[in-house]
TrEMBL record:
GO terms for molecular function: single-stranded DNA binding. The lineage of its organism: Eukaryota, Fungi, Dikarya, Ascomycota, Pezizomycotina. Belongs to the MGM101 family. This is Mitochondrial genome maintenance protein MGM101. Keywords: DNA damage, DNA repair, DNA-binding, Mitochondrion, Mitochondrion nucleoid, Transit peptide. The keyword Protease does not apply.
Length: 202
């Protein structure tokens, strides 16, 4: 019968329909979807600030093939764990996930020690609807990176002079060829890295 027929699956490209839960106003907890509780109320301890603002180790910086420098997400998480302890910080969504034809985006708030310290919107491109779930994780990672900028973590990566110096001293630009398709393109990488199959230097 028609009532026994399964409902059609929801298309992810229509949006994820995942609004944050609405809290009961009588519950004694902070609604991080709207609250700015604790923002700028007090600075971090000198010990925490020293950890957050430590100079970057050059060995930790990676380079994308298009020349963009970045710090792997796990490095941000390790820094937050050192400063606040595992469980002492978290990312709270502040709205629904928005899915366009090529982009996933969502706003997050970084909460440390029970207070809001930064808000950022994460973004991640995708090229196929099957990639939307993975893109939502990339979106969250992007928001974390942007929030950490306010705390001083890896702030060098937002400094054009630092980036130019790093690229001059630690990076190289080569012309590579895909051994299967024979397509050639420019490729950036660290000087201490090696090309991996299916790429070879021309």
């Amino acid at each position: 019968s028609p009532s026994d027929e399964s409902q059609p699956l929801h298309s992810l490209t229509d949006g994820l329909q995942d609004p944050p839960p609405i809290l009961n106003e009588n519950e004694k907890q902070v609604d991080w979807t709207r609250s700015y509780h604790g923002l700028s109320s007090t600075p971090f301890t000198p010990e925490q600030a020293a950890i957050l603002q430590e100079p970057l180790e050059l060995d930790d910086i990676e380079i994308k093939p298009d020349g963009i420098v970045y710090l792997p997400e796990i490095k941000y998480r390790r820094k937050l764990n050192r400063a606040f302890g595992p469980g002492g910080w978290g990312l709270a969504p502040r709205g629904e996930t928005i899915v366009t034809g090529k982009l996933v985006t969502r706003e997050y708030g970084l909460v440390c020690g029970g207070r809001l310290v930064s808000i950022a919107r994460g973004e991640q491109q995708y090229f196929d609807p099957d990639g939307i779930p993975t893109a939502t994780e990339g979106c969250k990672s992007n928001a974390l990176m942007r929030c950490c900028k306010d705390l001083g973590i890896a702030s060098e990566l937002w400094d054009p002079r630092f980036i130019r110096k790093f690229m001059k001293e630690m990076a190289k630009e080569t012309l590579v060829e895909h051994v299967v398709t024979k397509r050639r393109r420019k490729h950036f990488m660290r000087k201490d890295d090696e090309l991996k199959y299916p790429l070879k230097e021309v």
